[in-house]
């Protein structure tokens, strides 16, 4: 905690919050001072979201005390929190792509010329003043839809900073950003810290947390179990506190001699982002795919899965795969695809865990014209157990599960479908450390059963830890195909940035 509570922006003491029989927060003490970045960590379900929603007035504590700049306060509504200067930037950005930067910054609080008539000149000037105050280099007249991910994130931050913000809460702000964009965002956050704002930073990416944070707080099962200055701790200690156990290794890859060639790709082209890509992958092998944003890595997977048109030759176990014929054809050829955005393209959020798990296996479970619920319930129950999905029932809507458990459901779907080629696009994005390790173990199970895995990841340690071979894409071309022993972070980054090896 701080040297003096009087120096704190926010002080929370003994915060308790329950939802029915579930105690989400158990006597949590938490504090943020001006000019510091506090990293808030914990597995999914640890209480991070509940704590943030308590700070922003969405939830009210059942017990405990909250002080704002030394005075007792009741954060009974989000409007109360906003009036004090507390702002939240959510993982899913809430921007209108068809409007300008200025219009988005002022959205919902536009100055008016007359009642009901927006003063567009005043909107633009307010945005210019705010951008200048925080030294954001953005064109107020640019359409948000034309901006890159890092610039859109800055627009969201600028919206949050309107109205004399003093405390900024950021939930997984880098989940959709590449390395270069992350550095741009970090420059912005450091600048805000230097001007006296307090920031709370939530992320599952530990290297980022150590790069940007000043102090770290770990929640587990609703309790604060660890707190330290970043400079006085290390990754192993933080992970041990988060999961309550030792992790022998972050990336427990079980390597063995791979089998025959399962997937053969020759001269695959999908304009404008993929050009003349040739490689092969063997049964029981994990092939990591590395590249910068826009390199064509996600296009490669979506083309193989039939979601994009392409030219070239693709074979699975020697049989040709028709390109661009849609996912059902790819599924019949043994492909399974985990997209990088599970909520938008990976899950039917309003449907049950059972329906999501068995969606790609219906032809196998029900070879006739009728669905008789029984087989799918048995299959779903077995898959919930195998994937260690934490859910009250297989009939629970999948959208109510934590991010890590949702990702296990997506992966379990392709286990149920008996997929022999798994295409994984950022398979551990937005999940906690414990769930990551469980996903890595499921990858081991898949390759032990003879499946081939192609894995895209923006996290180099993850690729190096879990891949048997690595290929690198640069501007749509394959520029390196390396055995794990040949691959180093320096070589991979050099290939990805320049298209050539280190001289």
Report on this structure.
- This protein is an alpha/beta fold.
- The chain has 18 helices and 22 strands.
- The chain has helices at residues 48-55, 78-84, 101-105, 120-133, 149-161, 179-194, 206-212, 235-243, 297-304, 327-332, 342-346, 353-358, 362-365, 375-387, 403-416, 433-448, 460-466, 489-498, and strands at 10-19, 22-32, 37-41, 63-68, 71-72, 86-89, 112-114, 117-118, 167-171, 198-202, 215-220, 223-229, 261-270, 274-282, 286-290, 311-316, 319-320, 335-338, 421-425, 452-456, 469-474, 477-483.
- The strands form five sheets. The protein has a six-stranded mixed β-sheet, with helices on both faces. Strands 18-19-20-15-21-22 form a six-stranded mixed β-sheet, with helices on both faces.
- The longest helix has 16 residues, at 179-194.
- It is globular.
- The protein starts with 9 loop residues before the first strand and ends in a 5-residue tail after the last helix.
Question: Top keywords for this entry?
Answer:
503 residues, alpha/beta, 6-stranded mixed beta sheet, 25% strand
In short:
The chain has 503 residues and is α/β, with parallel strands linked by helices.
Percentage beta strand: 15-25%
Give the low-confidence spans: 1-6
In round numbers, the mean pLDDT is 88
Number of DSSP strand runs: 22
Helix content: 25-40%
Shape descriptor: globular
Termini, distance in Å?
49 Å
Instruction: Kindly report the spatial arrangement of strands forming the biggest sheet.
Output: 6-9-10-3-11-12
Assembly state here?
single chain
- Please tally the helical runs, counting DSSP H or I stretches of 4 or more residues: 18
The major beta sheet can be summarized as: 6 strands, mixed
Structural class: alpha/beta
